[in-house]
Design a protein that fits this description.
Number of helices: 8
Largest sheet: none
Helix content: 55-70%
Shape: globular
Mean pLDDT: 84
Low-confidence stretches: 10-15, 150-171
Number of strands: 0
Strand content: under 5%
């Protein structure tokens, strides 16, 4: 690693409180994980839902702290999806999480979309950073896990619809 790369990373960490691009590799997400651990087990899903909802509902400007927490919450939801990666960093939650309701997946996608949209302080900060492409790629990966473009069930439904259309034409 060159001196310039080290200096750039140090500037990013000072500016954003982030030490890497992962969902729990920043101060706010680590604090969110601690809060989640301190929350009663039966209230943890509600905290994740509220965190995602707060990001989605921020219409004018999304503060970086809310964005960082939303990314962490989305990562927790994605970890329970097929193809999701477990949260294995020491900065993530240490306590067990409930199995999340399926309706958190589209909410998490919407929150991630808000985090990378215009009027998002977190996106603005990352766009100024050397690691911006890696951060955006990590967000895209989470989004892909949460909302795969097409799965076997969708393909099967599509096939059923095609058969139905062919049958309808014959009558």
């Amino acid at each position: 690693m060159t001196a310039a790369t080290i200096a750039a990373r140090q500037r990013e960490e000072i500016t954003m409180g982030a030490w890497d691009v992962g969902p729990f590799e920043n101060d706010m997400a680590a604090d969110f994980a601690h809060t989640l651990d301190e929350t009663a087990p039966d209230k943890r899903e509600s905290l994740v839902r509220a965190t995602l909802s707060r990001a989605v509902q921020a219409r004018d400007y999304l503060e970086s702290s809310e964005g960082e927490e939303a990314v962490a919450a989305a990562a927790l939801v994605a970890a329970q999806c097929p193809g999701g990666e477990p949260v294995s960093t020491g900065y993530g939650p240490k306590e067990a999480l409930p199995v999340f309701a399926d309706d958190l997946r589209p909410l998490a996608v919407e929150a991630l979309d808000r985090v990378v949209a215009e009027n998002s302080e977190l996106a603005e900060l990352w766009d100024e950073a050397h690691s911006s492409p890696r951060w955006r790629q990590s967000i895209s990966h989470l989004r892909a896990v949460l909302a795969p473009e097409s799965g076997p069930r969708e393909e099967a439904l599509s096939g059923v619809q095609q058969v139905t259309r062919v049958t309808d034409r014959r009558t």
